[in-house]
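ok here's the first one, seq then struct tokens
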Amino acid sequence: MSEANLKVQLQADMKSSMKTGDKSRLLVIRTMLAAIKQIEVDERIELDDDRIVGVLDKMLKQRRESISQFTSAGRDDLIAIEEAELVIIKEFLPEAFSEKEIAALIELAISNTGATSIKDMGKVMGILKPQLQGRADVGKVSQLIKHKLT
């Protein structure tokens, strides 16, 4: 299996950050590469771009959760750090879907599965989750689906 383009891009950006002396950016990129490498070592595989997007999406979700916890604790200093990391991680993810695109995907998934009630939510999410990976907050989309099906 050939090396993933996203991983190559991350490595190139790491070198660029080293040359320019951007330590905060370098730290975030190294963290992303370490998370990717950890999975590759554990599973003894080379990750493709789709799987790397999944890893970065998970990191994004962790940052969002941290921000909400730091907000409730009143830790503005830590919120700023997490938000800066969020921006850097987003640079390596595909362009996010607009609200119209998300609504259209939800409608399509509901019609394809024949979902009529909240009991069918798993079917709809099963279709949407791979499409939304790294391009939308799956939690928010889940709320939109619940609203549609109730």
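and now the second one, same deal
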Amino acid sequence: MRVLVYQAHPGQHHSHANHQMSAAVSDVADIEFCDLYALYPRHDIDVSAEQARLLKHDVIVFQVPFFWYSTPSIVKEWQDVVLEHGFAYGSGGNKLKGKIWAMALTCGAPESAYRSSGYNSFPLRSLLTPLEQTARLCQMRFIAPYVLYGALAKRKTEATQAHAQGWREWLIGLRDQKLNLAAADALGVVQAKDIAGLVQ
């Protein structure tokens, strides 16, 4: 499948996890990577160019930190202007139908924070409901996100290295249609430890 990865981290130069993730896939062929902050430093998103980019791909991935229970602001701006009525949804808006919406998230909080008894009060997948519904409105398939929990505590450790390697295998699995999406969805979220059992 044709895979497009939108990277969006306002402080990416200070993010060890995202730096390692980018390094791990630097030599992966046939996947397009776009850094939204580098492309649009003033958030002046080229709607026509972005819509044309979407039409050329089967899988749309957002590689982002999970900020304030949402995405960085440029991703919201991208959604607001690119996913137009008549293009992505509404009357005649079926241009993204059947495509896959995927997310690769780095979370500062540990996994234990994302449950009813944790300080974030909800599972991560519940907090992603607005994004999942956006995908559904666009007639896209929202798949289980690839996640690193506790990213702040795991800086410069083997955990981030394992996560970066898993990211590489996850992306290649998507590209080559070897990632078991049904099994991934059953997990809710995918972590590095799950990759070996998901890539066929």
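notes on #2: The chain has a mean pLDDT of 94. The domain at 3-198 is CATH 3.40.50.360 (Rossmann fold).
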